[in-house]
Amino acid sequence: MEKERLVQALQQEQHQFEAWQVDVFYRFLENIERMGSPLGLTEAVGDALLNDHLLDSLRALPIIHHLQPSSIVDVGSGAGFPGIILAIACPDLQVTLIERMQKRAQFLLMMQLKLKLTNLTVIHDDLKNVKRHFDAVTFRALTTMDPTLVRLLLQVAPQIIAYKGRRDVVMLEKQLLEEAGYRCRVEELESLYLKKERHLLIVEP
Ligand SMILES: C[S@@+](CC[C@H](N)C(=O)[O-])C[C@H]1O[C@@H](n2cnc3c(N)ncnc32)[C@H](O)[C@@H]1O
């Protein structure tokens, strides 16, 4: 991917980052393009990587700025989405990644060192073994937010910020969790440029 393409896409989404941040985003994408497929992290390259992963991860920024957590834990970070992207975008936010697969956790640690992300910590473990506490937990995966998963996520932070897709699907998850006694709200993630419908499901005890 050309760096110009990244700069253009960030401008289209009206993101304003400092030059060093754009540079770190770009170096991260370069590493994913080179190692993502051989390491079994992601097959996405080019515009798919840019749109479906980097820009998608950034879509939650307005809500995160509004909620003002000092620390976030990203559970099941995989190739680093959204955790690494949020760490680059918010240098004052302490971001911890929890990833149970060894080769993914090793890649995340390598990125932390290579990109010199001093606000990033990587934990190679299963969520269920993590005893530390954070202000909020982010979660981006295909998995449904059922009450069992929510109980586990709320053990590490009092607020879950889950990246979700279509409104009808997320509203069903919300209903299920509300019936189980959780407080939930859904925020639509606007995009000037991306066409896919995206939402955040915010869950609290
Ligand atoms: C579908 S991938 C999503 C990766 C990334 N968040 C994204 O959106 O591209 C889910 C990741 O969560 C990790 N994972 C699943 N359950 C976990 C758990 N209980 N503790 C830690 N990591 C977990 C898996 O190893 C996998 O890398």
What order do the strands of the largest sheet run in, or round the barrel if closed?
3-2-1-4-5-7-6
Strand content: 15-25%
What is the level 1 CATH name?
A: Alpha Beta
- What is the architecture at the second tier of CATH? 3-Layer(aba) Sandwich
User: What's the N-to-C terminus distance?
Assistant: 42 Å
- Let me know the number of strands: 7
Tell me the structural class. alpha/beta
Strand/helix succession: HHHHEHEHEEHEHEE
Radius of gyration: 16 Å
Bound molecules: S-adenosylmethionine
| Count of folded domains | 1
Mean residue pLDDT: 95
Total number of helices = 8
Using the alpha-carbon principal axes, give the shape.
Answer: globular
Low-pLDDT residue intervals, each spanning 5 or more residues: none
Helix proportion of residues, in percent? 40-55%
Largest sheet: 7 strands, mixed
Protein name: Ribosomal RNA small subunit methyltransferase G
GO molecular function, one term: rRNA (guanine-N7-)-methyltransferase activity
Subcellular location: Cytoplasm
Family: Belongs to the methyltransferase superfamily. RNA methyltransferase RsmG family.
Task: Write up what this structure looks like.
The chain has one domain: Vaccinia Virus protein VP39 (Rossmann fold), CATH 3.40.50. Helix content is 42%, strand content 19%. It contains 8 helices and 7 strands, in the order ααααβαβαββαβαββ. The protein has a 7-stranded mixed beta sheet with strand order 3-2-1-4-5-7-6, with helices on both faces. Bound molecules: S-adenosylmethionine (SAM).
